Amino acid sequence: MFKRSLIIGLGFAGGLLLLPSLVVTMGSDDEEIEEQPEAVETSQNQAFPEIEETSEEESDSSSGGEGLELDLKVYRANTETVETVPLETYVAGVVASEMPADFEAEALKAQALTARTYIIQQLLYEDAVDIPQEADVTDTDMHQVYQSKSELEEAWADDFRWKMARIEEAVQATAGEIILHEEEPITASFFSTSNGRTENAEDYWDETIPYLQSVESPWDEESPRFEGETRLPIEKVEEQLNVRIDNGQLEDVNARTEGERVKEVSVGGEVFKGREVREALNLDSSDFNWRVEGEEVVIETRGWGHGVGMSQYGAEGMARSGHTYEEIIHHYYQDVTIAGSETIAEALRDLESVNS
How far apart are CA 111 and CA 328, in angstroms? Predict the structure, then answer.
C-alpha cells in the first residue's frame, strides 16, 4: 500500500529523465537502527589490528556515481515543519550528524553509503510509522539524524568549514551509490561501537537477514565507549523489570548470542532477553554482566548500540588500517554489491510502473 508522493528527477550520464508523481513508502524496524556516536577527537597515528581482506565484486566502483537529482521531504521535529532537501544534501547532513567529521575519509564514505541506502530503501518500501505532514523521513533517530548546514555551522562554529568540507567530499566521492543484496537496497543498519563482534540480526530483531550476520570487529577497542558501567538502585532495577530481587542476588546470564551479547538472563524468577534488559535499563549495550553492591546493581557493558550491521568505530579502524570504503562495506554487510544511480533509477521506474 502506497501513501506518499514524491517528484523525482534522475540525472546521470545519459542526461535527465523526469518521472511523474511517484507514490512510495518507507519500511521501519521496531528499533531505530542508528545511534549517534559521541563526537570525540581521535589520534591520526593510532594503530589498529589487521584482519584478512574481504572480497568484493569487480563491478563495484570506487570513483562514485553521477548522483541523483531527487528531492526529499524532511520533517523537522523541532519546528514541526517540512523542508525539501536534495538527496545528496540530505546524505551530507546525516553523515555530519551521525559520525564525527574527523573520522578517516574512507569511514565517512562508508557512512555516506549507509545513509543513502537507508533513505532509498525507506522510499521504496512501506513504512509503518506515520510521518507527519506526509513527509518522506524525519530528522530524528526514528530514521536518521539530520541537520542542515545552518544548524551544523552553529554547532561547529569555527570548525564548520573544514568539517563540512570533509563530509561533502566523502558524499561526493560516493554520489549515487547504494548497497544492494540480491538487487534490492539493504537495510543499512549501523551503530557506534561493537564488543569485538557484530550481532546477528535475528538475535536482536527476531528476523533473519542474510547480509546482517555476526563478524569480527576488533578495532572497536579504541572507542571511548568500548567499556562502560552503569549503577542503579536495586529498587530502580526492580521497578523497570517488574521483578523482585530476593536477598540481593542476581542470577548468571543463561545464554549468549554468537555476537557475545546476552541472549537470555534470569532475574526474580523471570527470563528476559538481553535486548529487553538493555532497553528497560537504558544500557549502552546488550553485552553486560551485573552484580549487586550494597543497595546498587552494578552493570558493566561492552560496546554501544544494538550491534547489528556496520560499527562506526570499526569502520574508522578499518580505514586507519588502509581499507577502502568498499572493503568496509563488504566486511560488515555480507554478499552485497555497490551499485550506482542507474540502479536507483531502474527501481524507481519499476515502482512507478506498478503504481501508474
Answer: 10
Structural domain including 100 reads 4-54+66-192+306-355
Question: Distance (Å, rounded) from C-alpha 341 to C-alpha 68?
Answer: 6
Digit-coded pLDDT (tens) for 13-64: 222 222 222 222 223 333 333 344 333 333 333 333 333 333 344 445 444 5
Q: Please tell me whether residue 242 adopts helix, strand or coil conformation.
A: coil
Kindly compute the dihedral angle of the four CA atoms of residues 55, 58, 63, 66, in this order, to the nearest 10 degrees: -130
Please, what's the largest Cα pairwise distance for the chain? 73
Instruction: Please name the residues in contact with 299: beta carbons below 8 A apart, sequence gap of 6 or more.
Output: 229, 230, 231, 232, 281, 283, 288, 289, 290
Q: Are 326 and 60 in contact (CB under 8 A)?
A: yes
**Total structural domains within the chain:** 2
The grid coordinates listed for 41 are 577527537
Residues 143, 8, single domain; the answer is yes
